[in-house]
TrEMBL record:
CDD domains: Glyco_tranf_GTA_type. One of its GO terms (molecular function) is transferase activity. The keyword Transcription does not apply. This is Glycosyltransferase involved in cell wall biosynthesis. Keywords: Transferase. It comes from Nonomuraea soli.
């Protein structure tokens, strides 16, 4: 089965050779789709050289600088594989991880994909996934994104294979600015198979000022406080935190960016105002 690895990149030519070598050792049939989001370094020439010598297909797409989310959509649109692996520039797949994930994939329409855990390079593996059903011979559970986030209170990053048809059906919104992945994942209602092992070695996240992320965070937290409140009793502090960050983002963007919320969501945002204001003032001083 063909796996389409989609990598959005912007001026990260230096990391691509190591990523290519990493993918060569995965032991699966794959194509690597690199979507260049307006790089001004040597990305284009380097990808041509990698494609010339590669044992698997390397496809290069270039676009004006529109953001990671738009680049992902474009890569997904042209993907030939049944499953997608989103691999950010600089991240590495654990040895044999794609082959192991694919070994757990049953095919068919029931599941959205199969995921393992993501950990920083050289760091200890995150805590185990929720306990597997006793009937399964390997440590794997299944859960929707909402169940994993709210019922199991999962906060560590996950990574793996997602059905191409579902990603095409639920693209990232084409808006300016940062778009969190959760905006897409929450719209996919199928459960995932969860494999209890680290599969991605991710590079440490670079610090980005809150103000630069405000548009995407307002969207993400607004969706949570509009559509996910049935889970409020499971994670009340999580929703209060979401309200704080929504209000904080709106202070950066202007009050017209506040989404229309149900009564409970509005009440949470009201409670959040003192802390949100304090965080906003701290943002402005940095």
């Amino acid at each position: 089965m063909l796996i389409s690895v989609v990598t959005p990149t912007l001026d990260r030519a230096s990391v691509l050779p190591l990523m290519h070598a990493n993918l060569l050792g995965q032991g699966v049939e794959l194509e690597w789709i690199i979507v260049d989001d307006g790089s001004v370094d040597e990305t284009s020439d380097l990808v041509s050289w990698l494609a010339w010598q590669s044992a698997f297909g390397v496809r290069y797409l270039r676009q004006p600088h529109e953001g990671r989310h738009v680049a992902i959509n474009r890569g997904v649109d042209v993907a030939r594989g049944e499953l997608i692996a989103l691999l950010d520039a600089g991240d590495l797949v654990a040895e044999g991880a794609l082959e192991r994930l694919l070994g757990h994939w049953p095919g068919g329409p029931r599941y959205a994909g199969v995921l393992g855990s993501s950990t920083g390079g050289g760091a200890a593996a995150p805590r185990p996934f929720p306990a597997a059903a006793a009937t399964r011979p390997f440590p794997v559970a299944e859960a929707t994104w909402h169940e994993l986030t709210y019922r199991h209170r999962w906060t560590e990053p996950t990574w793996g294979l997602v059905r191409t048809d579902l990603m095409r059906a639920h693209p990232y919104p084409r808006v300016r600015g940062y778009v969190p992945d959760s905006v897409v994942w929450r719209r996919i209602t199928h459960p995932y198979l969860l494999v209890d092992e680290p599969v991605l070695l991710s590079r440490p996240a670079e610090h980005t000022p809150f103000a630069e992320l405000a548009t995407g965070l307002a969207r993400s937290h607004g969706l949570a406080l509009t559509h996910d409140l049935r889970w409020l009793r499971r994670r009340p502090l999580w929703f209060l935190r979401s309200a704080v960050h929504l209000r904080r983002a709106v202070l950066h963007l202007g009050k017209e960016s506040m989404p229309a919320l149900p009564r409970t969501g509005r009440a949470l945002v009201g409670l959040s105002r003192p802390l949100a204001w304090a965080l906003y003032r701290r943002d402005r001083k940095r």
